[in-house]
């Protein structure tokens, strides 16, 4: 008999990223992966370029410079920060460390697909919980908890819906969950949110010993290709993650570029401002042409065309103009498309095509 993987591995549907090529070799406007259209801070690019002459050296396994920079900007203890090759890697470590065969891992109906993929990867059973109005629903999560539940994952804001739940709801969730259940608050889009009732989750982490916040440099910081993210954890969980991660799991270029990116707070503030303008523009213009949207606090918008046929037609129409957006049928949202915001002139282009 040939080598056999864990049975659950073959239940995984490989993750499909956003396309990056349009038909007919047209100039492409890629609005399919929630990347920033603005690129990273120029200081991050410079730090990246300066690494070129030390590539023969292993990175600092503790990513000290980066953890200290993050700690300074966000007011967090660097000892409780663990870096990963993208927040995806941290999500995989959390599944590896806290779930096994026979355990259940809860995530929401339209939650990020990687929660399911990594749960299956360790042999645990992913449990999808219904949302309400495309929003995480705390009561439904609490109802789904069993003696087998080990982890609850919530993306806040959520991808692909763009919705978020308020801090008091997260606290209610934490208080309603058994103490042994790890709550993971995925804040991949946290930097974009300006709503006053929102929390990125760091204060919830500090409430106890059983909540983790994950963050990424792939979105507002514009460093997707470097694969760098971080988790803020109770000390006991940071210790566990530091045991399961590879000794050099993040590269020197990633560490140094991310440290500059997070420290350039003026640049980040500009990105937030641009994003708020994009939200206002897209919501207004899509409403004008009679297309339904869901409220968003992230750098993308979920647009509902009412039927799968209409959604497919809109997808093709955009694709024919070299604009790539994201179909979300694999999230159970076949009548919708997810459109990442571009620069103002790019957003105008999207509106022009959709209104034609
Ligand atoms: C983009 C995204 C991530 C980030 O993934 P990286 O591995 O850090 O690039 C994590 N969670 C959600 C919900 C996302 O949309």
Strand content: 15-25%
Specify the CATH homologous superfamily of the largest domain: Type I PLP-dependent aspartate aminotransferase-like (Major domain)
Q: What name is given to the CATH topology of the largest domain?
A: Aspartate Aminotransferase, domain 2
Mean pLDDT level: 96
The H-and-E topology, N to C, reads as EHHEHEHEHEHEHEEHHHEEHEEEH
Estimated helix fraction: 25-40%
The assigned structural class equals: alpha/beta
Largest sheet: 7 strands, mixed
Number of helices, where a helix is a run of at least 4 consecutive DSSP H or I residues: 12
CATH class of the largest domain: Alpha Beta
- Residue runs with pLDDT of under 50 for 5 or more positions: none
How many structural domains in the coordinates?
2
Structural shape: globular
Radius of gyration: 20 Å
Task: Write the CATH architecture name of the largest domain.
Answer: 3-Layer(aba) Sandwich
Tell me the number of strands.
13
| Terminus-to-terminus distance | 58 Å
User: What ions, cofactors and ligands are bound?
Assistant: pyridoxal-5'-phosphate
Side-by-side strand order of the widest sheet:
2-8-7-6-5-3-4
